[in-house]
Amino acid sequence: MTASLPPEPPQETQQVPVCPRHPDRVSYVRCQRCERPVCPECQRPAPVGVQCVDCVREQGRGSRAARTVFGGLASQGRPVVTLTIVGLCVGLFLLQYGTQDEVTARLAFYPPLAVAEPYRFLTAAFLHSTGFVLHIAFNLYALWMVGPYLEGLLGRAQFAALYLLSAVGGSVGYYLLVSPYGENWGTPTVGASGAVFGLFGALFVVNRKLGRDVGGIIAVVAINAVLGFVASGIAWQAHLGGLVTGAVVAALIAYLPGGSRVRWAALAGVAVVLVALVVVRTQTLPAGAEFASLSTLWRTGVDNSGVIPQL
User: Fold this and answer.
1) How much is the pTM?
2) For the chain, what is the mean pLDDT?
3) CA-wise closest residue to 19 among 54, 49, 45, 48
């Protein structure tokens, strides 16, 4: 008598592991976090093994962004803001030269047109004298020596705000301190040195905050201050305006308690103060002083030699 054997259990089909993001790719490597298969394209190095791109992205959302010592977003790599400013200055310089200073006439800071064309408070800081090449060379050299250091300490956004506010502050200083009865009132001014002096002021403040040496920056400012009063054709008023503005902005960033919203509100307050100073100054000007036409003046004989560089 023969006994019947029990039926053999069905063989389970072994499923080949494939990458969830690329189902056509077989992968026997698994993510250390979710343990799903991950193909070489979706693998990211981890302290142990690899992780998939989804886990890395999810982990990044939950982690706080790194901050600089002065509360700005930490950035790695090239000083993007500094390089952008240099590029703008060089590009506009070529346009100035190529248009025979037509661009200079349209964008230079000119006190009689300051209220009617307020963008000149900022655009003048990206122009330079085409008749004196060392003007742009000196300014961009100083910017490159100081800019990357401050950009690394403050973060890109705060550094950009510092530069732009210092640039406007330089023009405001010129607008406030030049007499409407003197010849400089009717002379355009160009140059990045008002903004660069703002960086000098900021460098002094942040280095003091960090306990670092400030003797070098004091010497640079003192030498340039003397040159501004001794040499002719230098807009020392813009230097002073930029220096004070940059120092104030840096002090607010370095010493003001609170989070980033508090600091940005304070920087907005600096912009409001600069606007208020312009309004008050305009109210005290003699009638008609703020309405002269730069284009008319330019056509009647004021060429590039009549531009006062913020050297």
Assistant:
1) 0.74
2) 83
3) 54
